[in-house]
Predict the structure of Alkaline phosphatase.
Amino acid sequence: MRLIRIAITFLFLASINTGFSQDYKVHSHNDYKQNVPFWKAFGAEVQSIEVDVFYIDDKLMVAHELNEIQQDKTLERLYLNPLKEAIALKMVSGKEIQIMVDVKTDAYKTLDAIVGSLKDYPTIISNENIKIIISGNRPALEEYVNYPDFISFDYQSIEPINDTKTLDKIALVSLSFKNYSEWNGKGRLTVDDYNKVIAVIDKAHELEKPFRFWATPDSKSAWKAFTNMGVDFINTDMPNECVQYVSSLKERVAKNTIFSKVYKPTFESDKANRAPKNIILMIGDGNGITQISSAVLANNGELSLTQLKSVGFIKTQSADDFTTDSAGAGSAIATGQKTNNRAIGTDVNGRAIPNLTEILSENGFNTGVITTDEITGATPSSFFAHRTDRGMVAEIASDLHTSKLKLFISRPTTTVTNIEASGFEMNSNIAAIGTSKKEKVGAWFADIKIKSLEGYIEQLSVATKNGLSFLNNKKKPFFLMTEGAKIDSYSHENDITGVINESISFDKAITEALKFADADKNTLVIITADHETGGLTIPQGNMLKHEIEADFTTHDHTGVMVPVFAYGPMSQEFQGIYENNEIFHKIIKILDL
C-alpha cells in the first residue's frame, strides 16, 4: 500500500503546476514592536528584519518615535548581540538574512555611529549571508559608494541608476503601497489598482533588485496577492503567521489539469412516484460541501453531481461521539441504527444488526460493493460485516467469505485470502467484469501498474460501469454501493491536490451511475458522504486557471452536516435535513419492504 500511495502521489505532483515558482521572502516590519524582538522573527525564519534607530547621546536607540525611547533598548542589545549569538550557535549557517536599519535622526551622524558599532561585530560584518541595509534617512545617492562593503542601501525610487558602482550598493527597492492603492487587504484589488501595482513592480524589477512595499495591508489575501504579483519581500507585522502562510502556498494551492466531463441527465425518471427497481448508493468518504465546491470550481464550475435537483443534508453524529468516524457513519447508513464509533454493523451493545445487502438479498436483490479503499475498510465493511471494532480486519475479512455479496472491487489486501473458496472468481481485468457470466466476481485495483494520473482517475468509473453491467445482466433487482474513499485520505493529509483529483475521480463514477439510471429509467442513485474531513475552506482561487487555494482547520473529521444528492424514481424522498441513519429507512420505505 505504501508503494501504491507513493506512486499515486508522484503522479499527482507531476500533473500539478501551482504557479508559485518564485522564492518568497518575508520582511518583519517594525520588528522592535514585537513582544520578543529579533528572536521571534528569526525563529519564524523571516529573511528581513526592520528596526528604527535614533542616535541620541552617542547611543543607537531603538524606537518608532522619539518619546518612546527607553534607555536599555539599543541596537546592540536588541539586534546585534542576539545576531552575534545566533552566528556563534551556527543558527545562521545556510540562511540569508538582512537587518534593515531605518534611520530616524541625521543620516550622516547616525550612519557613522552604525558603522562604528558594527566594526565591534566582526562575525556579523564578515558573514556573507548577512546584509546590513540602511533605510529612512540616508546620505546622498552618489555618496553610497563611500561606505564600507558591509553597508548597503534601500532605494526608494524606481528611477534608473546609471552608475554601476552606486547600483551595486543598492540591496533593495522599497516603495509605499499607499501611493498606488488604498486596498485594505479584504476582497480584491480593483482592476485599475491592480494594473498600477503590477506596473510599478515591473518597473522596479528593471533595476534587477528585490522589491518591497511598505504601508501594506497585512492579511492572507494581501500576502497571496503580493506573492502572485512578484513582490520579493512581503511586508508584515505578523512574521510567524505570514511565513507559515506564504511558505505553504505551494502545498495549499492546486491547479487542476484533469477534468470530469459533465453529464447532463435527462430527468425523465427523476422524482417519478414509483418504487425503483435498482439502488445505487455512492459514498464520497470525507466529502463535505467544501470538498465538492473545490472540485466544482476546479472543473469549470460544474460537475455531473451538481446537475441533480433533489438535494438534502444529513447530520453525522455517532451514538457515542459528536464527531463520527467512518465505521459509525457507514454502519448508520448501512443498518439504519446510530452506533458507536469504530463499530462495524453492530449496535451500541455490540449486537449484530442486519444491513442493506443482507436485507435486500433476502428480498431478491443482487448486491455489490466497490471501493477505492481495501474491502475491509470501515465504510465498505459496514455493508457486509458485523464486528465491534473496525480494527478486527481478519474477522471482517472472514465476514466477506460468508457475505451475500455477488460483486466486490477494492484495493488489494493481504487480509483477504482464498476468497475463491467462497465462490468469487477473481478477475484481473476490471473492464471484463461487465460481461462476466459468473455467479460471483471480485477484483483488485492495481494502482502501481497505472502509468498516468488520467488512468488512475478513470479506475473508479471503469469499475462502476462494469460493476453495474455485471449486476444488471443477472436480470434481477440490485443494490450497489460505490465508495470514493481517498477524498478522506487526502483531506486527513490536508492535501488539496489529492482531494480535487479524488473528487474528479468520484464524479466520473457518478457520471456512469447517472448514465445507467437514464438508460434503465428504473434506478435510483443516492450520493452522499459519511462525514467531512479536514475542516476545509477555500478562501481564494482562480476559475479561469482552475486554481484552488485550500485552508484546512484540522487533520481529523468534523461534525458538520454533509450533502445528499438523489436522482431517479422517488429521489424527492431524500430532500431536507435528517440524521444519517434515515438513508437506510428511506431506502426500505421506497422499496416497500
Summary: The chain is about 35% helix and 20% strand. The mean pLDDT is 94.
